[in-house]
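Service request form, structural biology core

Requester: graduate student, group of Dr. S.
Request type: structure prediction, single chain
Budget code: on file
Notes: please return the result as structure tokens.

Sequence provided:
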Amino acid sequence: MISLRDFQQQDTEQLISILNDTSVTQFLSSKIPSPYTASDANWWITEGSKSELIKAITLDDQLIGCVSVIQGEFEFNRSAELGYWLAKEYWQQGITAKAATMLLEAVFTKTNIVRVFAYVCEDNPASMKLLQKLGFKQDAILKNAMFKQQQFFNAHLFSLIKPHNKN
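Core staff response, request fulfilled:
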């Protein structure tokens, strides 16, 4: 069964394994170290993931991915950026959609966030399809907004606005 929980020390080896798979990390932020070491995993577990809105995706309590919503600051504090990654062997099974739905439900019911957005590299149609499945709408295509692996990419910006209460 898929569930969300905080990262735990027992996740270290799986975290290292997943985040050293270039098929997983190719579209993630370059702020994730490569190669990903035990020291990186320890920092993530003890400090980096310590937010109510950063969760480990687990299957039968084994780490298989991550989903997060990072709230903006100052005048952007009612917006937040969605992020996610999943071990390759679990792709195309609806797991990320389920995990993101669970976290987004908590975001929209337990926080003051009204807009969640995500940037997607133009070469990642699977992620665009996932966001659309979650109800996100494309806001813009930002030309040459990403520079990774010594080349420029267009970034597709998607957003989801908190559903209005029907009361």
